[in-house]
Design goal:
Layout lengths: L8 E6 L6 H17 L4 E3 L7 H13 L4 E6 L5 H10 L4 E6 L4 H6 L4 H15 L10 E2 L1 H22 L1 E6 L14 H5 L3 E5 L1 H10 L6 H12 L9 H18 L5 E6 L4 H6 L4 H9 L4 E2 L4 H14 L4 E7 L3 H7 L11 E6 L12 E4 L1 H7 L9 E7 L3 E10 L5 E10 L9 E6 L3 H10 L6 E6 L3 H10 L5 E2 L17
Parallel strand pairs: 1-2, 1-3, 3-4, 4-5, 6-7, 6-8, 8-9, 13-16, 15-18
Antiparallel strand pairs: 10-11, 10-17, 11-16, 12-13, 14-15, 14-17, 15-16
Helix pairs in contact: 1-6, 2-3, 3-5, 6-13, 6-17, 9-10, 10-12
Length: 494
């Protein structure tokens, strides 16, 4: 994927001048040995910070080495002012960690007291108003610090990506899906740029790509991807033309941004004016790390992009759509899984989920649109969906949202897609999240979230939770375990 940042880690050790600097250096070198042994590339900054001059020299070395994510390592107690000054002046995300004492002999004369220094460092970061990532437990030996650095990489990648992201939108948000209409002011505070465009801009650009000489090559690529699922080959020329339109729009409008995403209106006038459903193209760009959300869902596109940065893999955006019928639950879920009927639901969208996330993807038409736009005739303008059951496995359902008061909030919930045949249409799967029924009522409904949720494939809750906090979400809700109540939840409810 070339639409997400490449994280370049750098490590800087610090030492309070009343402690031996050699202790901090030796502990930094031990971390580097573990990183090298495990293939984690890290720039080792040789300047160890004891004073402000050292901090400025380390900052210069970080800049000269093009480091964009900093590991600030308290090899001993550390100088609170200079070390936090470095975090303040460093332009990328910073993680702060501290050294554990190695053994009993160290305690006799070479104790580092970084456990204590971590408290003062965190206080000084707050005094300076500096954000830093501090792991759930930030003190350990070289192996442990290496593991925390590995955890930091996807968090840093998402933070860097959001800072340089531009989201293109086409068309106003649909009246029938007003929930996707959210204030965009909080996005600018994150560094996200939003370029809103008319559907006419898109149509004009699409028409200018008619007979583009690159269309046959894109068609062949689509044919290779679809394979036996290429059930409607006649629509591929229009889809190829549209794909080139979006890619060229990026090149012409990216501007100062490094990364991009789309939030596009996709119905109902789209079908009558463009002559197809854009879902398959949306899936193809999303698979490349360029999310394309439906229904002009700007925060949906942002959430997808965050998930792409965290996992480094394709994600999707789905409606939290419908309940699982009782007969399906009894036949395929009851007694085979620990999930209750309220723990399961079906996630669906028309056909925007990438091919690599489906059991078997097939080109089809949008059934609901067909009923309304071209009833009693063979599908034509409603062709273009990529449909199939979503592949079973672990997932994380999540969303960052600006609410009606322009306040950022979020949720993160881990679960799985069950190996259950959906027997339905669209890109769809049977999802299971522990205590989903209560989460649905007391987070999704109570806090006013829209119907769209981003889906990361795999359990990425730890990193996503930290990213949401870093980005300033006032709440990061999750599915509370049984017996732990949500605010306002009635403990006597039946």
């Amino acid at each position: 994927m070339n639409n997400i940042p490449e994280v370049k880690l750098g490590i800087v050790a610090v030492s309070r001048d009343c402690f031996p600097i050699t202790l901090s250096i030796a502990r930094r070198e031990a971390i580097m040995e573990v990183c090298k042994a495990n293939g984690l590339p890290v720039v080792e900054i040789k300047t160890t910070i004891e004073n402000e001059q050292d901090a400025m020299q380390a900052l210069k070395e970080l800049h000269d080495s093009e480091v964009n994510a900093l590991v600030l390592f308290l090899g001993n107690f550390g100088p609170e002012g200079p070390e936090t000054m470095l975090a303040e002046k460093f332009e990328g995300p910073t993680m702060v960690v501290a050294a554990a004492e190695e053994d009993i002999p160290v305690l006799s004369a070479n104790r580092g007291d970084a456990y204590c220094g971590m408290l003062n460092a965190s206080y000084n970061l707050q005094l300076r108003g500096v954000k830093a990532y501090i792991p759930s437990y930030p003190v350990g030996d070289a192996q442990y610090i290496y593991e925390k650095m590995v955890e930091f990489v996807p968090i840093a990648r998402a933070i860097l990506g959001v800072r340089d992201l531009k989201i293109f939108t086409f068309g106003p948000r649909p009246y029938d899906f007003l929930a996707c209409n959210a204030p965009i002011a909080p996005l600018f505070t994150l560094g996200v740029n939003v370029q809103e465009n008319s559907e006419l801009d898109l149509l004009k650009s699409y028409n200018e790509h008619k007979n583009d000489p690159r269309i046959p090559d894109v068609i062949r690529d689509m044919e290779n991807e679809l394979g036996e699922g290429n059930k409607m080959p006649g629509i591929l020329p229009k889809l190829a033309q549209y794909e080139l339109t979006l890619l060229d729009w990026i090149d012409a409008n990216k501007g100062a941004a490094k990364y991009v995403a789309f939030a596009n209106k996709c119905w109902p006038a789209f079908q009558t004016e463009f002559g197809f459903v854009p879902c398959y193209v949306n899936s193809r760009l999303t698979a490349r790390g360029i999310p394309v959300s439906c229904e002009v869902d700007i925060y949906g596109a942002l959430s997808e992009y965050i998930g792409t940065c965290v996992t480094g893999e394709p994600v999707t955006l789905l409606d939290i759509n419908n309940s699982v019928p009782k007969d399906m639950y009894q036949a395929s879920i009851a007694g085979k899984t620990p999930y209750t009927p309220q723990d399961v639901f079906m996630g669906f969208h028309c056909g925007n989920t990438p091919m690599c996330r489906l059991v078997k993807g097939t080109m089809k038409y949008q059934l609901i649109m067909h009923r309304g736009l071209e009833p009693d005739k063979e599908p034509d303008i409603t062709r273009g969906t990529l449909e199939g059951d979503i592949a079973p496995g672990p997932i994380t359902f999540f969303r960052l949202q600006g609410n009606k008061d322009s306040v950022l909030k979020s949720y993160v919930a881990e679960g799985e897609v069950l190996p259950v045949a959906t027997q339905s249409f669209g890109g769809i799967g049977v999802f299971a999240i522990p205590e989903m029924g209560r989460f649905y009522r007391h987070v999704l409904i109570q806090d006013g979230y829209p119907h769209h949720g981003a889906v990361a494939f795999g359990h990425a809750g730890q990193a996503l939770f930290e990213v949401m906090k870093w980005l300033g979400a006032t709440t990061v809700s999750f599915n509370q375990p049984k017996g732990v109540y949500y605010p306002g939840e009635n403990p006597y409810a039946k």
